[in-house]
Write a structure and sequence with these properties.
about 325 residues, Triger factor/SurA peptide-binding fold, Chitinase A, domain 3, four-stranded antiparallel β-sheet
Length: about 325
Amino acid sequence: MKRIIFVIFGILTAIYGYSQSAATVNIVRTDPILIADFREAVTRIEQSGRIHLTESQRREVLEGLINQIVLSQAADRDRLVTRATEDNLIRQYVRNLFEMQRGRQPSEDEYRVFVLSYNLDSPKNREQMLREIKSNEFLRRNIQMPSEDDITDMYNRSRGELRRAQTFEISIIVFPYGSDSETRQRSRTSGDSIVREINNSASKFEEIFTRSTLTDLGYYPGKGFIARNQPVRTPAEQALLDAVVRLNRGQVSRLIEGPEGFYIVKVDEIYPEKEVLSLEDPRQLGQQGTVRDFIIQYIVNLRQQALLGEERRKATITYFEDNINRIQW
């Protein structure tokens, strides 16, 4: 009798679980994507970019979650990651994340603090990181890096598209604000005051820019490059781009609401469009990576998409449209 109750309880648990799911994926087991996890992923993207995703963009987020589970389960099927190697792989993955952010490997104390920030004692967080590790490991083992002939062939076929748009080298002063209207208004008021102090003077801008590097004044300086054809994701990014391309060398902008707050921008240099780029030319000014690097990554991405398509066709993917449509965004 106890066994019958246990089996029935298991069935009810599965039914309840799927009633809370946006989708399930099965290659070696059935993994659900819970509505709560789907919402969390969308919210994280919206908050980090200060944007509101459209319905089609939210679908892309869901597909991304599905893709990660597909690749993770494919790694399990092929036994690429074992219980014995999980801890070492997590350790190396965390150390690599630290190096990507700081440009060097962490000390042991820094590593421990970094691990705490990811809360890997939480089974959910640990499982999420393992999925990322398994997905990367599956791709690494199955994707062949492009040969020199592959690179040359792709370069010759796409040479007409490999041009660098007119690019602006800029200095910026950023007045950040939080999610509430009060801090936004404070930042606007502070920015307007500095705009009046600068009064379109490049030398005065440089004076205030330098001052903000030395002490915390509630605003901070930055430098960078913006290409005329730079992709934009939000109205704030578009507003910043529109303001920059209207400026001449040495000119200072009005106060602009940008991706991270309010901005004052000065154009330091303008580089003309370059129509013919060699394999060793920088792909974009101010960014690491040559045209060769760009082509290698492009070919790798094509191969990853082909491999992902193969694995998705092997998987059983179920969408719970009623659950998805009931989500209150």
